[in-house]
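#help-structures
NK: newbie question, is this the right format to request a structure? protein is Methyltransferase
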Amino acid sequence: MTRIVAGTVGGRTIAVPPKGTRPTSDRVREAIFSRLEHLDVLDGGRVLDLFAGSGALGLEAASRGAVEVVLVDSARRAADVARRNVADLGLTGTVRVVADTAERYSAGAVGPFDVVFLDPPYDLAEPALAVVLEHLAAPGVLARGAVVVVERSTRSPEPTWPAGLEPFARKDYGETAVHYAEPTA
């Protein structure tokens, strides 16, 4: 069972696709959001959740004060589950779901975003992730002081950070590694 940890819809459960996704655990989500709240990028912020799956990360952001959230997933089933979660939580005015690939959406993303989540399948090849990160580093996509959060396996190499994105932290939780980066300009 996956639930929203805190905020206006904290404690509510959300549906997850029956297969093909790996929801971020409550413990890891709580740690991520604790850091983001400390960095003061959520309240009133714009959030992009790529490889969204059920939408748990973006929905948590909306619950904690983000004013606009875009959930992007290429799997039709995941996008449908995310739409249902948005409606069930009453977040239709704040959260929008897009059925598209992270690569295609990020190539045309209209920012600025204050927070971007990337929680791709662990088997996504590093070059494919690097392309998405390169798109995010383009001028106008990230706000000044934005945070990019990448969730990977601890066995995966460090993401290939493009010019314009500087890593500032990594934290491991069991099999999950969470990487944080910020724009350099």
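mod (FA): yep, format's fine, and the tokens are attached above. The chain has a mean pLDDT of 94.
NK: thank you!
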